Amino acid sequence: MTEPAAIGGSHVRVDSLAKVTGRTLYVEDMPVPGLLHGYVLRSPHHHARLVRLDPGAAAGMPGVVRVITALDIPGLNGLDGYSQDEPVLTPVGETLKQKGAPIALVVAESRRQARAAAGAIQVAFEVLPHTFDVDEALAPAAVPIYPAGNVLGRHTVMHGDLKAAFAGSHLILGAAYHTSFQEHATLERNTQLGYLDDQGRVTVLGGTHEPHWQQGYIARTLGLDPDRVRVIMPPTGGSFGDRQDPWSLVAVGLMAFLVRRPVRLAYSRRETFDATPKRHPYDVKLRIGATADGQLTGIRVRINANTGAYDSAGIWIPNYAVTASGGPYRWQAVDAYAQSVYTNAAKCGQFRGFGSPQATFASECALDELCQGLELDPIDFRLRNRLHQDSISFLGYPVAETLGYLEVLEALRSRHEEFRREADAFNAVSAGGTRMGVGLAGMWYRFGKSGSLRVETQAELELDGRLVIYCSAPDYGQGISTVMVQLAAEALGVPREAVHLVNADTATTPDSGIQGASRATYFIGGSVTLAARNLKREILAVAAILLDAPAGELLLERDRVVSRRAPDRAIPLPVIAGRFEQLGRPRKVQGVFDLSPQFPDGSRPEYIPCFTTGAQLAQVIVDLETGQVRVTRVVAAHDVGRAINPPNAVGQVQGAVLMGVGAALSEQYLPGRSTGLTDYLLPMVGAMPEIEVKLIEVPSRYGPLGAKGLGEAALLPTAPAIINAVSRAIGVRIRTIPATPPRLLRAIRGRKRAS
């Protein structure tokens, strides 16, 4: 019987059966003998100085094992490398910069006892003025949240003669756009487990995008060598960037280290709203020009990104904000500047698309308004201005990877024409209470982020004949473990069931770099492919000795190597593994995916310019009396290079679309007011539109089998496509999201008054 192909065969995820049958244990489910429970005492104020902290009464309460303050931290009280000037626990005399900032940790026999003891800690504050507003934080008289001021990071891109570009424009559009805080709202609340393993290592289980980075943060806090700390990525119920924040893993590691017993720290949903990072809200001012026939000329961008109370990687946000603003288009001149600004709102951090969806919303809405003003077709307008492979990009230099934007846009053309005909017919017979609109938006997304250009994984033939891959590609529900197995199986030439994966454990897997910016399939998958190929070559070489046949005439199968010329001549993999031992040859080999030669130090930009492109088409119906919007259909076309697991890729896009519906229409975290899922309006199942996904395959230059990144990029065009559809339906431009019913009604009534 022919084995199914690893790529294009079975796409069922490797962990699906255990999850749907309930066998998978998440951290909160794990039975642990002698388990203690942690609780965090947090600031009740948005901005305050901690003037007194007395844990004495709490320490003597029933069940309490230890109360931990900043004075008990044996190493560095900070998260340097991730969030500058953010303490693990705030010392007396320092300022707590947001509501929910951590003050002390309580470890007790039960969570209830820990919580009660936290309430008994005597704390005194000097309440300070606070602001959630960027303009207030930038005002000359603003209270400095940090001694150096309230601006965290800056980034600029400038080239060409903007004055001349605007002078040659037929139409110049100037507009301001605003986005909101968003909450990740992962299905699994933040939960971590810390204990000492049988080698005395501080071991932490918890969701993360980079176990080896977390290992370093924990080790520095505890004053230990990194090899005395182990971080394991357990099954995790979602991230969307939330699990990149290291604070909770550091905290549980600290508790376990100090009490020498297992400790679990489980957030309530309220804690996740108060204390975990959010999406950065943007205030964007855009000025763009075009000629009468639709040729883009110049662009001027100014962005203030609200980074909240702590850095939390917000120093890098301006770079991503500026980059996303330009899109996959050609510009004669660019003047772009962004800055991240401290406020006393909840700290912001990584969130699907890291700094890019907000800027894409603004620029794609502005482009749509511009092409509407020029009475041009949105697809033709974007095609006319699309970035060519060798063109100078918005960033001032060419891109490094293949671009499929032409193919993406053409894939939407027939549906766009169909949707417009449907809208014309609907609006012609509508009684006036509802209107249908059609909107289009495109995007580019720089995948690869700040991770190393050199990524290592390993492949091994175990003594029992198993083929094992070792990598660090954390899977928090996106299915990347399955993709790694598929890529390895394809390279080995065996069915994927023959491949075993050891993933994201600092004690057993190499550091494969950050799992973020949609880099896993491209970078880590590239390394896995190379490791598997190297292992196959070694297996066939040893089998050639045993079979006395050229390696080129041999075939690696599920559990043996067989001669192509004489199929009855075969040797089992355990026998081959034993021969490795006799020969003194290593059964574990390395795979290194390294783009450093293509992008040498000193000549490459801060981030290598690898971009993926996509576009989405949205159809909406707006109730002009209530302001309610129903997204009826979305068509999403994304260049994936090569779809390693097409159903998984489609699922990523579908999930991104629903997330984009929430960003566009309902999701808004309000500092000081939002407390949980009862007052944070996630889109429910009834909000899911009919979604058609078109996977465009323009092979990459360097990725495994031509693959590119997808997971985050799929989110970027959804909100602007929906808002462009809404704006065209109601005849007035919406420039603030979420476009809630009250906001829409104000816009509709304002248009009526103006007319």
Question: Any idea of the CATH topology of the largest domain?
Answer: Aldehyde Oxidoreductase, domain 4
End-to-end separation in angstroms reads 72 Å
Q: What CATH architecture of the largest domain would you give?
A: 2-Layer Sandwich
Q: State the assembly state of the protein chains.
A: single chain
The CATH superfamily name of the largest domain is Aldehyde oxidase/xanthine dehydrogenase, molybdopterin binding domain
Please tally the β strands and state the result.
26
Task: Give start-end ranges of low-pLDDT stretches.
Answer: none
Into which percentage range does the β-strand content fall? 15-25%
Strand order of the largest sheet: 3-5-1-12-9-10-11
**Helix and strand composition category:** alpha+beta
Biggest β-sheet strands, sense, barrel: 7 strands, mixed
Shape: globular
**Would you state the CATH class of the largest domain?**
Alpha Beta
Radius of gyration: 27 Å
Helix content: 25-40%
Report the average pLDDT across residues: 95
Number of domains: 4
